Amino acid sequence: MSRKTGAPPGTLIFTGERKLEKTRITVIEYDQTSYSERDEEAISDCLPLKDKSTITWLNICGLHDLKVMEEIGNAFGIHPLVLEDILNVDQRSKMEDFENYVFVVMKMAYRETATSDFRIEQVSLILTPQCVITFQESEGDVFENIRKRIRESKGRMRKLGSDYLAYAIIDAVVDGYFEVLDGIAERTETLEDMLVSNPTPETLHELYRLKRDMILIRRAARPLREVIASLDRDDVNLISEGTQIYLKDVYDHTIQVIDNVESLRDMIAGMLDIYLSSVSNKMNEIMKVLTMIATIFIPLSFLAGVYGMNFSHMPELGWEFAYPLLLLGMAALATTMILYFRLKKWL
Q1: Of 236, 257, 277, which residue constitutes the final position of a domain?
Q2: CA-to-CA distance for 292 and 218, rounded, in angstroms?
Q3: 16, 38, 238: which is closest to 126 by C-alpha?
Q4: What predicted TM-score, i.e. pTM, was given to this entire model?
Q5: What is the pLDDT of residues 14-73, one digit of tens each?
Q6: Are 80 and 35 contained in the same domain?
Q7: Are 18 and 163 within one domain?
């Protein structure tokens, strides 16, 4: 963000990290009877799609190429301030309704296939009457099921307009949080068992990692409620009344995601107390054992100290059975104390 300081409004500056060598432009074009999917080399090859009656999904992977972004803005009439928000990958989720298009910014969360970790990246969406344009930082996403439904002509996807496609993309982003939260819930349960049975410094580090992850997810998920509510308004002309019904369902899913996030945050916050209690209990058990041992040896040390003084007129010093009898008495005393501790349930 510091790179934008002092720059005029609408200046195209990419604030993220370059994750692809080359910007990839994928085009999916379809209607009820036909379908095509291809990669394009330049934005100029996509210009004829604006005048077609088919629905077009233009997906841009890689935001580092400012020339490509400028060409997209010129080709589809996107305002420079909108392009600036697309390139600002730290942009807060929002929706803006322009005269000819709707602009949506969201945070997409998904679990990586190779590992159990998750990623959060920004996804921007432009909705026009016949076209949906999405912008991603990298190629990983949660949209494969949408592509499959378009390819196989399943459900209503190829029967409805571009607003339904935009709804499907937003719905996939929201549903992606459920999979991420399921993974975090599994980590939380495993960590909770470890906290109760054997808390270690590594357990505390994992607890702080979970806490940091939940902060990231909460920051990404909470603004989605405002975005969906804004899209569900009646004054968004590019979204039909039929699609608004589906957006209400997405809004319910968003509330559920936020509720799950808050529940997990409360659990993780409480787990720190569990960790401190477990460590304290473990320390108390250790101190309890040491105290018992010290208590048993206090009278034994007293007897050993008395008979270790070696005064000349100690009567027991000259007795033949004094030494074994003293050892036997010390053993009996220790045994009696241990039995007493067990009777009191201190051991």
Answers
A1: 277
A2: 49
A3: 238
A4: 0.78
A5: 777 777 778 888 888 888 888 888 888 777 777 777 777 888 899 988 888 888 888 888
A6: yes
A7: yes
How far apart are the C-alpha atoms of 78 and 68, rounded to whole Å? 13
- Provide the number of structural domains found in the chain: 2
Say yes or no: 292 and 155 in one domain.
no
What is the full DSSP assignment across 237-290?
TTS-HHHHHHHHHHHHHHHHHHHHHHHHHHHHHHHHHHHHHHHHHHHHHHHHHH
How close are the terminal C-alpha atoms of the chain, in Å? Answer: 61
Which one has a higher pLDDT value, 19 or 226?
226
* Same domain, yes or no: 271 and 293: no
Q: Is the pLDDT of residue 1 over 70?
A: no
136 and 224 inside one domain: yes
Tokens of 8: 């005029």
Q: Which of 129, 136, 143, 141 is nearest to 28 (CA)?
A: 143
Q: How far is CA 166 from the centre of its chain?
A: 24
Distance separating alpha carbons of residues 328 and 13, to the nearest angstrom: 88
Q: What is the pLDDT of residue 170?
A: 92
Amino acid at 54: T
CATH number at residue 38: 3.30.460.20
Does 33 lie in the same domain as 163?
Answer: yes
Number of H helices, E strands in the chain: 7, 7
The one-character DSSP state at 49 is G
**CATH number for position 329:** 1.20.58
Neighbour tally for 209: CB within 10 Å: 12
Give the pairing type, strands 55-61 and 94-97. Answer: unpaired
Of 242, 259, 277, which residue sits at a domain end? 277
Q: Which residues contact 24 (CB under 8 A, 6 or more apart)?
A: 39, 60, 61, 62, 139
Which pair of structure tokens corresponds to residue 70? 């400028």
More confident residue, 315 or 103: 103
Q: Which domain holds residue 178?
A: 2-277
